[in-house]
Design a protein that fits this description.
Length: 330
């Protein structure tokens, strides 16, 4: 059936300005790292993308290697784009990245101009897009001059392959240098994509300050610690969960009794607030004004609905914030 997006799709989503740029991003964006690959069902992927767009999620985040197999998430998105979203291209922000291993030989990963430009072209072909909205250097490369990697991002933008440039998982110092090089080249660094959640707070140690100073936006990945910061694992490891699957980085051994005890306490606090834990974990991240968007993953439309439900109550009192700190430190 031809997809007709919900007419009220822009009524409840919150859009936040990405740093000092002209671009607004939805406070909640959808990442296609897991559950959109060749091993997954396209119809579930379609249901999630449609539900997300119906809820005002205009931003879909990909990378060359998402799958498995690598590249297949972009291929699936390409099918969904062609069949469902093409008439709405100007309402969408699609991103991709290069930097992790994608093809054999010396040019299939890291930060050379060769890798970034070739990978961007491959991504565009897989997705059937003329351009991506944001193209990222997926990780810093200790061996390639930063000038070359940033020069490649600048070229990718100037050649029309992308509208904006971004970086992911760069340290505060690398971010400052990258921002200075890109500014000099005339293509400002739009955004940084770091990991951030209640269980992973490295960005609070300098990166968020650098982003505020540089006027860059931030979109944070794994905000729910890959599902751990939800009720998903409170009664064991469900068969259809990420931790039960043979691929990916969330393993059963990461779900420790100590973590689960904290999750249970956080879950109680969320319930007192009339929220799910996923909603509270998202609200906790959005308390930081420098963070533009929370980049969630999902395995069902219902999870996307739950996550967007966070917007109904984003305020956290001092008492609640202190209780969260106590639980996390316990
Ligand atoms: N730049 C980078 O290096 C990098 C690295 C990693 C990720 N990312 C990006 O960030 C995106 C998000 O990362 P992530 O998938 O790790 O994020 P996440 O939101 O922390 O974890 C998503 C997983 O949590 C579970 N979940 C989500 N909402 C839920 C809810 N309401 N209730 C219960 N469980 C829920 C689902 O697990 P189940 O599948 O078990 O249901 C889902 O697959 C990726 O798709 C990708 O775009 C970027």
């Amino acid at each position: 059936m031809v997809y007709q997006p919900a007419e009220n799709r822009y009524e409840s989503m919150v859009y936040r300005r990405c740093g000092k740029s002209g671009l607004m991003l939805p406070a909640i964006s959808l990442g296609l790292w897991h559950n959109f690959g060749g091993v997954d069902t396209l119809e579930n992927a379609r249901a999630m993308v449609r539900r997300a767009f119906d809820l005002g999620i205009t931003h879909f985040d990909l990378a060359n290697n998402y799958g498995p197999p690598p590249g297949s998430a972009e291929e699936s998105f390409g099918v969904l784009f062609k069949q469902d979203l093409k008439p709405f291209r100007d309402e969408l922000i699609v991103s991709s990245k290069a930097g992790y291993r994608m093809w054999p030989g010396p040019y299939g990963e890291w930060g050379s101009r060769k890798n970034l430009v070739a990978s961007c072209d491959q991504s565009l072909r897989r997705m059937g897009l003329e351009y991506v909205d944001i193209f990222y250097s997926h990780r810093p490369d200790p061996e390639t001059p930063l000038e070359e990697t940033m020069g490649a991002l600048d070229y990718i933008v100037r050649s029309g392959r992308a509208l904006y440039a971004g970086i992911s998982s760069y340290t505060p110092e690398q971010t400052q240098r990258a921002a200075a090089i890109l500014r000099e080249l005339g293509t400002p660094c739009l955004i940084h994509q770091p990991s951030y959640s209640m269980f992973n707070r490295w960005v609070e140690d300098g990166l968020l300050d650098v982003l505020a100073d540089e006027g860059m936006g931030a979109i944070v990945f794994s905000p729910l610690a890959q599902g751990l910061l939800t009720a998903r694992y409170l009664d064991g490891i469900p068969e259809d969960s990420r931790a039960a699957k043979p691929w990916g980085f969330l393993r059963a051994r990461n779900i420790t009794p100590d973590k689960l005890q904290k999750v249970a306490q956080l879950n109680d606090l969320a319930r007192e607030r009339g929220q799910t834990l996923a909603e509270m974990a998202i609200a906790w991240i959005l308390r930081q004004p420098v963070i533009t968007s929370v980049l969630v993953g999902a395995s069902s439309p219902a999870q996307i609905e739950d996550n967007v439900g966070a917007l109904a109550n984003l305020s956290l009192s001092e008492d609640e914030l202190n209780t969260i700190e106590e639980i996390l430190a316990s």
